[in-house]
Amino acid sequence: MKIIIAGAGAVGTHLAKLLSGEKQDIILMDENEEKLSKLDSNFDLMTVNASPTSISGLKNAGVAGADLFIGVMPEESRNMTACMLATNLGAKKTVARIDNYEYLLPKHKEFFSHLGVHSLIYPEMLAAKEIVDAIKMSWIRQWWEFCGGALVLIGTKMRETAEILNVPLHELGGRNIPFHIVAIKRGNETIIPRGDDTIKLHDIVYFTTTKKYIPYIRKIAGKENYADVRNVMIMGGSRIAVRTTQYVPEYMQVKIIENDINRCNRLTEVVDDKVMIINGDGRDMDLLLEEGLRNTEAFVALTDNSETNILACLAAKRMGVTKTVAEVENIDYISMAESLDIGTVINKKMIAASHIYQMMLDADVSNVKCLTFANADVAEFTVKAGSRITKDAIKDMGLPKGVTIGGLIRNGEGILVTGNTIIQPEDHVVVFCLGMMIKKAEKFFN
């Protein structure tokens, strides 16, 4: 597959690194030669030093034979222009990164497609949705719904109160167990568990289950005493913060603390009246305490500085806040953030890359989620008639090491699978893949 990525910024370089390991034909375009020179020698990709909005530059990059053209430059208008030009010069499919929510409305889809922009991605909106999913339940690190919630994935950290510590998985209730443990994150290692594996203190355990069994998982994880989130404090009035306030449930009270007075004035115009805007430095503990930090169940740090966000969440934890979320855009800091136990980490680059990655899979995939801490992906495949996965029971399928099936949705109902389960056409199957294994798993669903 020939893929051209326009823009060697944070999202473009992360995506190029991700895809270069896939043995795809990757071309990264940017007019800044310095950005490109850092990448060229270290990864299996080609770089083109030209403007992605230049017709001659696009021709030199070989856009006529491109299967996928991805515009991820900082400026929305340049991404749209580059995609339109790429389509007219022969690219089969285009994706543009945008920052205008209005463009995503279903009524505009055909209009943009006609112009040559086939898909749109808005990383700030995707990040805001992840934040809201993370704060809805204070005891959960990651939460992901499949098929409108028929099946859910829950990631939660094991504390001393967990009932399932040090018990081999095959002893956890046998065939009638109402959940499936798809992965265990232990230190820097992610384990696809087998029956004789055990869960240890401080593991992050990923469960798939149906919604009615969430209270049961909360109980066995020892998290029943965690307060439900009613009050949310957001540090930093970024675009993600604005989107987050639009997605939080009605029952939550939100405060945004922003240092820049001009930004505060702008926030009062764009957020709901019930959101309180406070002008001040979110690193000032006296200010946070004055504004009710001790009565806050969720603290979300969304400044443009990863270190500030990590430290602010650490401070909030020390003050007794149950749930903290930090935006950490520096990928090198993510494992450090996890070792400091700051709660949920949000990274726009990884979220955007997951969604773009989904578009280049041949199988029918409606969802791909990158699990930030676990170096793993969860994908939701729709099973086609005649595909390999329907030919035998799961245990006889020979799935690659590092791939496990977490559950399936049949006729709108979530079903947990065993080794004897036979998958049928039209099932939606939730597949957990370590590292870059989605491409290998995909072959079973084509």
From TrEMBL:
Entry-linked Gene3D superfamilies: NAD(P)-binding Rossmann-like Domain, Regulator of K+ conductance, C-terminal domain
Signal peptide coordinates: none
GO cellular component, one term: plasma membrane
Protein name per the record: Trk system potassium uptake protein TrkA
A molecular-function term among this protein's GO annotations: potassium ion transmembrane transporter activity
Keywords: Ion transport, NAD, Potassium, Potassium transport, Transport
Span of domain RCK C-terminal: 141-223, 366-446
InterPro entries: K_uptake_TrkA, NAD(P)-bd_dom_sf, RCK_C, RCK_C_sf, RCK_N, Trk_Ktr_HKT_K-transport
Residue span(s) of domain RCK N-terminal: 1-121, 229-346
Pfam families per record: TrkA_C (PF02080), TrkA_N (PF02254)
